[in-house]
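Exercise (ungraded).
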Amino acid sequence: MSENTVLVGAKPVMNYVLACITLFHGGAKEINIKARGKAISRAIDVEEVVRRRFLPDVKVKRVGIGTDQVAPNEEGSSLTNVSTIDITLVR
Amino acid sequence: MSENTVLVGAKPVMNYVLACITLFHGGAKEINIKARGKAISRAIDVEEVVRRRFLPDVKVKRVGIGTDQVAPNEEGSSLTNVSTIDITLVR
């Protein structure tokens, strides 16, 4: 994962918004917002807040969707699939 | 909303997968999978299951993300924003 990636999890949306703004203010021209499973809708919330409220010059370059295979916690059970999103923002 | 749109909500993923397969088997060349808020991750689950398990010749043409304004239930409160996804599949 590159240094210009914000991995969205279960924290409040504004935490990740601040991370994105910090990267752009630090000179990044392109950042990636990534999430898996239930955090996917929060990743889109982050992108929308960054662009609409804080950085209107930022554009969505690409939205990738896919599947990751995840090793389960218990031994003996098989791999499970989880959906992923990868939003590329450019300034 | 066109007749070739599957709106993903809170039902099980396979309900929406079946709706997509039915549209393609009925001759549709292009369908849209749409969702809002917490159902967004389920919409990606639907797309992944349709393509990986059932219709490998189907491709993702476009993924659009955005914001809808929603009127709240109680009177007097203001509009709230909800994130959206619109996945276009082509065969």
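Further reading is listed at the end of the chapter. For now, observe: Chain B touches chain A at residues 37-41, 44-45, 47-48, 52, 60, 63-67, 81, 83-85, 87 (CB under 8 Å). Chain B has a mean pLDDT of 94.
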